[in-house]
Amino acid sequence: MAVSTLWKSYLDQTPDRLKFIDAFLVFIVLSGVLQFVYCVLVTNFPFNAFLAGFASSVGQFVLTASLRAQVNPENRSEFKEVSPERAFADFALGSIVLHFFVFNFLG
Length: 107
Hints:
Elements: H1 2-13, H2 16-41, H3 47-71, H4 84-106
Helix pairs in contact: 2-3, 3-4
């Protein structure tokens, strides 16, 4: 009962932009879990590839959660000087830098 009320409230009150970001966050979590399960059950060779992929998932999750916090209209008072466009530019630049380091870690 409480979960259905929470879900209905989420669907009714959350802007579509935040729902899209939330869907991407769920995808990132599932991707990280899948990589970890594969590493445990199948193989961790090459280990640096697992570390790079898992670090990519964790880093992208952090960047996306930060983007969600900055574009949430309810947090406008905390991020007065940051426009949604600026937040997305920071997210994009951070993602590029993150994946540059992940690519270099692969070897």
